[in-house]
Design brief:
Helix content is about 40%, strand content about 15%. Helix 3 crosses helix 5 and helix 7 packs parallel to helix 8. With about 375 residues, it is α/β, with parallel strands linked by helices.
Length: about 375
């Protein structure tokens, strides 16, 4: 096996994206910032393309946000200490060395990038896809759920939902329009759900995303009002650190609660499971990479929970297919905004017939147009 030779920035570019309305934790401050795009809300306004190269000339690439790249620069001197096969060792070292200012956020995003680059490079060295390295394929294809249905004119929302039905989707996720700062929020949100349910019926699994925008009192009232629509889950109703709120909420409502997009490593997910959250949604590009994803899978199984990762990026797809379908039943497919995670990739997996199929190329099996 070969040592990691370098970790370097090769280019950068700005991210621009259409504005789609949905609830956000900053809804209280709309008079200051107005409505922003999903990329801007997620602080993905500039991305940097990063290359890892081994002493044997194997190259791997990934895109990260500009703040994550700056953090990577600070820890890059440690990355060169490892053989590309020493994935678990490198992860543990980087987690421990960054503890004074890490444990979540930028530090874990940076560790995620290193972890994914190492998995890609090592799998290329072995000549196998990553999913074979981390457990092998458990199925020929991955079920996808259509994820968009942002608030819009009634006729547009109806047309979009009908389109997903025609495409063969049996699982969908919508966004809501109003949070506690709006006195008419409950009625506005119920109207959106009714519009979609009237189109898709009750044989479709319909979930709804509040993206960290509620407080406990409003969440309880809102979710109880939504129960008549038989939703598959309610996503991220509370702030990520409100584990006590999650614990109280899951005991009081009938709809399953999901969370994890903005949580880190195994410890946060243990807290979520203890709080009664039964659908975990980590993202390999944020949570720390594939290494903690596999640990979280075992943790979820021990609680009888499932993992439906945030965003159907290539890294999450390799993780999903390496775990039993009972644990990772499906992948999210962001149908209308993918520009913040797939720039310059020439062979992005697309959901066809509501299914993803992965190739068997070495590494994560993706190629960039600048290679």
């Amino acid at each position: 096996m070969s040592k990691i030779k370098s970790l370097e920035k090769i280019s950068e570019e700005n991210v621009t994206q259409q504005v789609f309305p949905y609830t956000k934790p900053t809804d209280y401050y709309k008079d200051m910032i107005g409505e922003v795009s999903p990329a801007e809300a997620a602080m993905i306004t500039k991305i940097v393309f990063v290359k890892m190269e081994t002493e044997d000339g194997i190259r791997s690439y990934i895109s990260v946000t500009e703040p994550v790249w700056k953090y990577l620069e600070g820890i890059s001197k440690y990355v060169n200490l490892f053989d590309v096969s020493e994935i678990s060792k490198a992860w543990d070292f980087l987690y421990r060395i960054t503890l004074p200012n890490g444990r979540s956020g930028l530090a874990l995003h940076a560790i995620s990038a290193v972890n994914l680059l190492m998995y890609d490079a090592y799998s290329k060295e072995l000549g196998i896809p990553v999913y074979r390295l981390i457990g092998g394929s458990t199925r020929k294809q991955i079920r996808a759920y259509a994820s968009h249905l942002h608030p819009d004119k009634d006729e547009n929302l109806e047309a979009e939902a009908k389109h997903y039905l025609e495409e063969g989707y049996t699982d969908m996720k919508m966004r809501f329009i109003a949070s506690p700062s709006d006195p008419y929020a409950v009625e506005k949100n119920l109207h959106l759900v009714k519009i979609i349910r009237d189109v898709v019926g009750y044989s479709v699994n319909l979930a709804g995303d509040f993206w960290m925008s509620l407080n406990y009192n409003f969440a309880y009232k809102m979710i109880r009002a939504l129960e008549k629509y038989d939703l598959a889950w309610i996503e991220e109703p509370l702030l990520p650190d409100d584990f006590e709120g999650y614990s109280r909420l899951t005991k009081k409502v009938e709809i399953p609660i999901s969370a994890g997009e903005h949580h880190y490593h195994v410890f946060d997910f243990k807290r979520l499971l203890d709080a009664g959250v039964t659908i975990l949604q980590p993202d390999a590009t944020w949570v720390g990479g594939i290494t903690p994803m596999k640990k979280i899978a075992g943790l979820a199984e021990s609680y009888g929970a499932q993992i439906i990762p945030h965003a159907g990026n290539i890294y999450n797809l390799h993780f999903i297919i390496s775990e039993p379908e009972a644990i990772t039943p499906m992948a999210e497919y962001l149908t209308r905004y993918r520009d913040w995670m797939e720039q310059h990739i020439v062979n992005v997996p697309r959901a066809t017939g509501a299914r993803f199929v992965l190739n068997d190329d070495p590494g994560f099996g993706i190629r960039y147009d600048f290679e």
